[in-house]
Amino acid sequence: MTTIIDGNEIGDQITAGVAACTDTLVSEGVTPGLATVLMSDDGASETYVSMKQQACEEIGIEGFHHEISADEPAETLFSTIDELNADPAVHGILVQMPVPVHVTKRDVLERIDPMKDVDGFHPENVGRLVAGNARYKPCTPHGIQKILAETGVETEGKDAVVVGRSDIVGKPMANLLIQYGPGGNATTTVCHSRTEDLAEKTRSADIVIAAAGVPEMIDGSMLSDGTTVIDVGINRVDADTDKGYELVGDVDFESAKAMADAITPVPGGVGPLTIAMLMYNTVKAASLQSGVDITLP
Predict the structure, then answer these.
(1) What is the pLDDT of residue 100?
(2) Which of these, 89, 114, 157, 186, has the minimum number of CB atoms within 10 Å of its CB?
(3) What is the distance between the alpha carbons of residues 176 and 89, in angstroms, rounded to a whole number?
(4) Is the bond preceding 98 in cis, omega lying within 30 degrees of 0?
(5) Active site positions, annotated
């Protein structure tokens, strides 16, 4: 029988451990602080930021939220980041993407103090990840590692295929899978829009991680029996519902479920882990910056 992986349950377990570490820090006079910055009128971005701030409140992290009009010059955003970099009450900084077209994303990522870069996207932190000495693992790939571990999926010696090569998921996920140690040691292939015969690659895999942002691009015919399928995608497609749309992943769930040994649903799969690992990184950042030792889950 196929296991439907409950990301909410795994995320709750991790969050409970992070909350215990938060209590330890608070008892030592250190309250972890996460600053979110929104420079967008996008409704989805507003929802994501709200969810992150709510998660902070639930486990005792102090949340600081800054909204900047999308019409403001880039320097307004950079000045805000500079202020947060200098604020000792702020241990983590997250600028919600996307930013307006007149703001260069790379400049934003490089402006954040790498010690406060809890997304793990600053070039220094990317370099540490690739070198096998990560300070903060990017939240979604790290969450996927936790899903695989908690589900009992062995990565060592297995063939893994990552579909998608984004800086946020695809590239760091591949780096984590190939590294020496727990959650790694997999033989990893990265597929993308120029890959020829994608189905041949995915059918050869023990683990398929779909993160291309294309609705239901992978179906059961592209999988071998017993594959573990991790669906990172979350896409709005037109549907006959009250909202006029429904959310689907990058995997056709029903046909893939017939082939998979274990599979994540959308929603309720990877998403809860992304927020849980953001809390994890924020508390880790508070520990590193304050010198108070904690044992994260």
Answers:
(1) 96
(2) 157
(3) 31
(4) yes
(5) 52, 96, 119
